[in-house]
Design a protein that fits this description.
The structure is a homodimer. Chain A is α/β, with parallel strands linked by helices. The first copy, chain A, has eight helices and 28 strands.
């Protein structure tokens, strides 16, 4: 048992498998809706088309401070021969004009910006073009019918589609919802991701560090990276490298209703052997091992139509595997692709500040640091980080990584390379 | 009273005043710390330098599966003449070797990756270069002292600075904290911002819309924009345009301990007159009116060393004023400048798809929409949005805005313009 999945899969093949998985899962998850108040809607994704329940503005509205008039009363007015109208009253923004009375020729009503146009009036004379005296006003400039009036529904019509299914709700969109008086909205569920750490040597930060033990890093970096992909992480704890304990934890994960499960191995070889067996007991193995370094001991399984990712225990390897294979899936199913958009600079071209050696015959990811302004060589150059993938500082000092393809052993000093920046991977949507 | 502050201030002067304010306030707010668990630290900003309380790794650690040996025992080993050592036992990752016994020459201990090096051993022979038989192992390749060992503290030394004051905590940083076993961290307080809407015509979304009333948009867009700046918004409700009610609300704002107060006017002229008087009663007016369109009725006051921003009631004008004057201040005091960084594309160059008219003698911001691929003219062109600043769709349809400087009345068709993208303003830090 188990032998059939020990064959290493090519990186491109794994990427293809995951792209197919994205399509299937994204569809399923996009169908799961929840309702939220607009105050909590920022960054969420609309899960239906949304239509305005009313006209915006809801009534014909003055766009100026001035006088609501019958336009024809002003047609021949000028500086020398003003029209004189009797002021019947005033209307402020927020007030409602009488619906029984109708403004007649020869009369006008003082009106504030934003106030509703009274019945009978069909234009507004700006305050600058008028002069009050006692209960009358002189109009010095004619207005055309509809002038300085924003008609009801001219901004948004009742029944008009204001948001499309799948739109990310930024302040522009929540503002439109507010304008239409919509205070609750259907949004897509955020996918949930359980995280499990395995390794007899692992201890959670905050606990005592007994001899031979180290602190678990992956629970933290993966939890935060999952948030960065627009998903909700749930850390289920550290388990020892035992088939029974890992199987139990996987069942616990499935019972939470999680959409995706991530399990990282300890630095021991344990998980590489035990996890595939545990997955086989519940579902099937799709990938066991990828031709990349670091990150070779990568596992992808499917249980109850849910993907289980087995990542290496080493923090740098875990994060590279996560970013190559898990990140695209999580962003696809959360519907939040903002970081694939052109607004965010994902990659830069740079030059190698020194010769970079890579293992011939392995697709290798080399973590690099960008040179600073004051250094020689300056900006535009990258240095490989040589502390090795076992060191946490390899990760924390890195600005990005470069990919050295299988068969290319050496990058020469000064050779141009493409740097995948870590920053964009760490900038979550909302 | 009040006359002295009716002078319009130039845009550049307002920007300078706010830049000075940023420095003063940022310093004050950066001094306010709070402690959070690392699980809640993502996106927060370290408020102290942080030093590692321990060596990482905490012990000399094997980087390979193999045999812990005294290196000199292997010096002359090769394929034909292997060294033979007696296996004294095995040590797995997470286990602790005996501290009383010392490995002697002629002996070895089977060791897993990540396990602590036993006392007396000074190198690890890889499993590929050894062969076990019964209680012995043949070593086929020599190892140098220290080979395949990662010494205690070689990744991070006890007492070493692992994070600088002011660092944004991304998964790289929270991972380093976890590795060092740090589970609580001092971070800067998130600045709090109270938001007040004024206008007799305003009603909150979700409430009944009586005749003459409209829904309040600014509470929602400003609340979400404040989150986008890394601050915590607190909406204090809608108040009528009355001096008494506005004064009371400002006092309530101050009582919450808010760092910044934002108050938007209704579309009525009310707030323009009442707010400065209310502020004068409590503190002082710095700016009353800016030479931009839209956004002229902008007010900046200081009360108890806290800035009060008075923004126009019109949603488009409010958001442009917010982005020009409030956004830079909030990002500066929250310490989160990520969106000023080069990774995010803030501006693009484009061409006007048609002639754009602007009011001569006013600095004008014109909201524009980027042309789509399938349009003629295609990508690279922008269209002005002509629905006017009173329409909510002016804002929701816009991709960005262009600035037309005072004195430049017309932008010709095909003329190059710089577009400030709204997207980056709406992508919050965490």
């Amino acid at each position: 048992m188990g032998k059939q999945f020990l064959e290493i899969t090519e990186k491109e093949e794994v990427e293809k498998l995951i792209a197919d998985l994205c399509v299937k899962l994204a569809k399923k998850i996009a169908a799961e809706k929840q309702i939220v108040k607009i105050e909590e809607a920022l960054g969420r994704i609309a899960s239906t088309d949304i239509f305005s329940p009313r006209n915006i503005p809801p009534f014909d509205r003055s766009t100026m401070d001035g006088y609501a008039v019958v336009a024809s009363d002003t047609f021949y007015a000028d500086e020398n021969n003003p029209s004189t109208l009797i002021i019947k009253g005033y209307i402020q923004a927020g007030e409602s004009p009488s619906q029984s009375e109708c403004l007649e020729k020869g009369y006008c009503i003082g009106i504030a910006t934003g106030a509703p146009i009274p019945k009978g009036a069909n234009a507004v004379v700006k305050v600058e073009n008028a002069q009050e005296y006692r209960d009358k006003v002189k109009i010095y400039k004619p207005v055309a019918p509809a002038e300085n009036i924003m008609p009801a529904g001219s901004d948004i019509k009742q029944g008009e589609k204001i948001l499309r299914d799948g739109t990310i709700l930024t302040p522009k969109e929540t503002g439109v919802l507010a304008a239409c008086g919509i205070y609750e909205v259907f949004v897509r569920k955020k996918p949930s991701v359980t995280i499990i750490s395995t390794g007899n040597e692992l201890v959670a930060p905050g606990e005592d560090l007994k001899p031979g033990k180290i602190y678990d890093v992956n629970a933290q970096t993966l939890r935060d990276s999952v948030i960065g992909c627009g998903c909700v992480p749930l850390f289920l704890g550290i388990v020892p490298d035992s088939l029974e304990e890992i199987s139990t934890k996987l069942k616990e994960s499935l019972a939470t209703g999680a959409d995706v499960i991530i399990i990282t191995g300890g630095t021991s070889a344990g998980v590489g052997d035990v996890l595939p067996t545990a997955i086989e007991g519940l579902g099937e193995i799709i990938v066991h091992g990828v031709d990349i370094k670091p990150g070779k001991p990568f596992v992808l399984g499917m249980v109850q139509e849910k993907p289980i990712f087995g990542l290496p225990g080493n923090p740098t390897s875990a994060l590279i595997s996560f970013n190559l294979f898990v990140n695209p899936l999580l962003r696809a199913i959360s519907g939040n692709h903002s970081h694939n958009r052109e607004e965010v600079k994902r990659r830069i071209r740079a030059k190698a500040a020194l010769r970079i050696f890579s293992e011939h015959g392995r697709n290798e990811y080399v973590l690099v640091k960008l040179a600073k302004k004051e250094q020689t060589p300056k900006e535009g150059f990258v240095y490989p980080i040589l502390s090795g993938s076992g060191a946490i500082t390899t990760l924390s000092n890195a600005d990005g990584y470069i990919f050295v393809e299988k068969g290319k052993g050496i990058i020469e000093e000064g050779e141009e390379v493409e740097v995948e920046l870590l920053h964009h991977l760490f900038t979550p949507p909302y």
